Amino acid sequence: MKQRKINLMYLLLIAVFVLSSCAKSSKNAKFIPADAAVVSLDVKQMFEKSKMGDNEEAKKKLLETMEGNAKSQEAKDLIKKIVEDPAKAGVDLREPIYIFGNSEGKVGVIGTILDKDDFAQLLNALAKDGGFEAVKEKDGIQYCTDGNKYTIAFDDATFYGSESTIDDIVAKFKNDETQNTMAESEDFTKLTTEQGYIKALIPMAIAEGQFSDIKKNLPEGADLKDLSIIMNLTSDKGVAKLGIECLAKSDAWKKSIKEGNDMFGKVNGDYLKYIEKGAFAFFANFDGKKLLEMLDKKEAFKKAGFDDQKKDMLKKVLESINGDFALGIGEFKGGMPNAALYIKTKDQSFVDLVKENGMKPEKGMDFGYKDGATYIAVGESTAFTEAKETYQNAKGRRFYVACDIDLMANLAGMVNNTASEGAKAVGEHVSSAELYDTSDTHVELVLNMKDKEKDPLEYFMQLLMKQFM
User: Fold this and answer.
1) Phi/psi zone of residue 280: left (φ > 0), alpha (ψ -120 to 50 degrees), beta?
2) SS3 at position 256
């Protein structure tokens, strides 16, 4: 009975989402603690991009399913009313919905009320189908519970759901104080200006109690409360993009980020022409000396248990690196991948070190030093062979990663069947993926779809609808 009620609530919400108008900004930031992780959902944008609102056949089947799941006549009547006028659900989905959680694992949901009487009617109708109690009132705040821990409360403007007592929730509604809430957070303000339909703000302070050793590894003078991450998901025909931005609010963090960036120059493209598009590619530009300085500063060799001999060997290699790094891995043939690696080095220190340890170039494993590059060619790959099609988008970035999903599925098969099946499932719709920096503090993950005329959200919504129809 409870599962039936929950399905009906989801179906009602989906119907409202499909038929609602465009999204606006939120007014409910005061309900969200400043140290909580927040996910913002622009549901209307999601349904517009998925074209569910234009799919009359899908909507008809959805509404038939809704009526079939309704137990009471009151719920069936309400469904018909909402189909005729979605605003009768009482929820204003022109505003974003926020889901947030704190370090203790407590989760809350915040949304906007369009009409509290209509919303109360919706909850009461669902209550008769089982699961929740009828709507009550306390100090001017209406609410209902599931008879256990979860409470949904609302006034004229806002609905709020969480595992809290009604007394705690009423206090939140009555208190206009915004200190220590997202209403005074510059990071949250930035989140609201992003254009994605799924956005997330993660204050890193939320991790402080989760990992006991995290403070030991922070940069000198840095505090987790001064660092946040914003994630922003967008899509268009044939492509989906996830932006990830680091927001540093202290000089210690800004200095640490700068030091990290200083280890990476911009990819010059010295070896782009030798890496053919295939299963996997990675490009970067390293300053080996600065990397070595950072490792020494963090006592990385000591923590890794390196003895003096190993440390000296690695230092010799790192000190020789100063420029582009390019790696390409292709298909497996004869048990080995076709792969090529190029590193700009000042001399052949790395090659000499390898030879000193007994390795020599041979068929299927060629390496050496040529034209300022230490190179390794594995399998059928031949070093310094120019490719017909390569990765020009990598030039000018600090790093660039790309992979062909179908070929990655073949590589994953060398690991285990589960990895291969997972890659194949992704490969049904995704042709390739890219990851690269767009600024000193921002990176972007891009999924290129096989169908260039369809928004990726259409696939997602098709899967969602199958759960209810």
Assistant:
1) beta
2) helix
Tokens representing 18 are 């499909």
Give Cα 216 to chain centroid, integer Å. Answer: 26
83 pLDDT tier (thresholds 50, 70, 90): low
Please give the backbone phi and psi of residue 370, each rounded to the nearest 5 degrees, phi first: -155, 135
CB 343 within 8 A of CB 321: yes
Cβ-based neighbour number of residue 80 at 10 Å = 12
Q: CB atoms < 10 A from the CB of 308, how many?
A: 8
Cα 418 from chain centre: 22
User: Tokens standing for 441?
Assistant: 């503090």
The more confident residue out of 242 and 133 is 242
For residue 77, the SS3 value is helix
Fill in the DSSP letter of residue 181: B
**Distance, CA of 461 to chain centre:** 18
Q: How far apart are CA 323 and CA 343, in angstroms?
A: 7
Q: Long-range contact list for 73-82, CB < 8 A, 24+ apart?
A: 74/124, 74/125, 74/128, 75/8, 75/125, 75/126, 75/128, 75/129, 78/12, 78/121, 78/122, 78/125, 79/12, 79/15, 82/12, 82/15, 82/16
Q: In residues, how long is the chain?
A: 469
Q: Which of 340, 337, 398, 400 is nearest to 374 (CA)?
A: 340
Q: What is the pLDDT of residue 104?
A: 78
Average pLDDT over residues 368-391: 92
Kindly state the tokens that stand for 209.
């109690």
Whether residue 374 contacts residue 316, with contact meaning beta carbons closer than 8 Å, is answered with no
- Give per-residue pLDDT as tens, 330-352: 877 766 788 999 999 998 988 98
What is the reported pLDDT for 150?
Answer: 86
CB 274 within 8 A of CB 257: no
Please tell me the distance from the alpha carbon of residue 237 to that of residue 99, in angstroms, as a whole number.
Answer: 28
Least confident of 264-268, 376-380, 405-409: 405-409
Of 281, 280, 261, the residue nearest 271 (C-alpha): 281
Letter for the amino acid at 460?
F
| Sign for the pseudo-dihedral over CA of 205, 210, 212, 217 | negative
Handedness of CA 181, 186, 192, 194 (dihedral sign): negative
What sign has the CA pseudo-torsion 285, 287, 293, 295?
Answer: positive
264 DSSP assignment: B
Sign of CA dihedral 218, 220, 226, 231: negative
In the structure encoding, which two tokens stand for residue 432, read together?
A: 């390739």
Cα separation of 218 and 207, whole Å?
13
